[in-house]
């Protein structure tokens, strides 16, 4: 019993240290963002106020915080929609073996192990050599898809590997076409997983730095803007920005989780109603 209890405390301490390491920097930024007007970038704090959050909404001497924020939101939504659509199509395609499927699978995974900065450089060079504009909505969009699509496809591969095909067979026996089977049977069943893929796509795009560095062109996304601010902003306004973007990220995650919860509740309700109808 003593050994078990000692092991428990050792593991609990290790886990607590891990949590401090994981969330300590975020909490530190959050605390420092509430400094008074005379506050700096380090401890000790000089007063407590929301001055820097108010200052964040004023015209900044350098940078384009809100422009970069809306560019990141727009880019994240573009990447999210594309990732969901292509991932579902890829998952459906890989349900059956076809010539070159193994090679294509490993080509998809390869983009995850290539250094992100090299992907950014390569995509930027391709657009430049092709005479196309290097812009966050074109080259930046393409480079971020090399990051989000492999994750989305891997999730869909796992989903369809466990998918019970008897549902589709039952729908076809009832006279449903292939498209009706996908729309009214397959997609509703995998809806929670689609929301997970969407969340992956949006969040991975929203905070992506390396793959956007050489492909964003003249207009920064939010991660690039924050990086630029670290070199010329010497007030806690940058911490206020970090705190708000963190809260925004948690808010997005909360929205997606709420949607999944509502879908599951709706399913449970319909299932119980169907059971009562049978009785």
TrEMBL record:
GO terms for biological process: transmembrane transport. It is a multi-pass membrane protein. GO terms for cellular component: plasma membrane. It comes from the Bacteria. The keyword Transmembrane applies. Keywords: Cell membrane, Membrane, Transmembrane, Transmembrane helix, Transport. The chain crosses the membrane at residues 7-34, 73-94, 103-127, 147-163, 184-204, 237-263. Pfam families: BPD_transp_1 (PF00528). It is found in: Cell membrane. Residues 69-256 form the ABC transmembrane type-1 domain. The keyword Transmembrane applies. InterPro entries: Bact_Polyamine_Transport, MetI-like, MetI-like_sf. Belongs to the binding-protein-dependent transport system permease family. CysTW subfamily. PANTHER family: PUTRESCINE TRANSPORT SYSTEM PERMEASE PROTEIN POTI. This is ABC-type spermidine/putrescine transport system, permease component II. It comes from Roseibium alexandrii (strain DSM 17067 / NCIMB 14079 / DFL-11) (Labrenzia alexandrii).
């Amino acid at each position: 019993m003593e050994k078990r209890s000692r092991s428990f405390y050792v593991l609990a301490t290790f886990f607590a240290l891990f949590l401090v390491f994981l969330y300590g920097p975020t909490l530190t930024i959050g605390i420092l963002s509430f400094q008074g007007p005379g506050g700096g970038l380090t401890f000790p704090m000089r007063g407590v106020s929301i001055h820097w959050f108010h200052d964040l909404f004023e015209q900044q001497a350098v940078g384009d915080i809100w422009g970069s924020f809306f560019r990141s939101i727009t880019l994240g939504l573009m990447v999210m929609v594309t990732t969901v659509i292509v991932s579902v199509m890829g998952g459906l395609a890989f349900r059956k073996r076809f010539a070159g499927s193994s090679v294509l699978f490993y080509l998809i995974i390869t983009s995850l192990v290539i250094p992100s900065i090299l992907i950014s450089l390569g995509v930027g060079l391709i657009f430049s050599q092709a005479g196309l504009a290097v812009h966050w909505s074109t080259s930046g969009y393409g480079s971020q898809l090399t990051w989000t699509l492999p994750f989305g496809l891997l999730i869909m591969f796992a989903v369809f590997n466990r998918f019970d095909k008897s549902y589709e067979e039952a729908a076809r026996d009832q006279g449903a076409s292939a498209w009706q089977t996908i729309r009214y049977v397959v997609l509703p069943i995998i809806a929670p997983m689609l929301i997970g893929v969407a969340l992956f796509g949006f969040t991975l795009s929203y905070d992506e730095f390396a793959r956007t560095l050489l492909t964003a062109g003249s207009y920064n996304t939010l991660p690039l803007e924050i990086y630029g601010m670290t070199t010329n902003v010497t007030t806690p306004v940058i911490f206020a920005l970090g705190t708000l973007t963190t809260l925004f990220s948690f808010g997005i995650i909360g929205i997606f989780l709420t949607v999944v919860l509502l879908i599951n509740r709706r399913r449970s309700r319909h299932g119980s109603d169907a059971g009562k109808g049978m009785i």
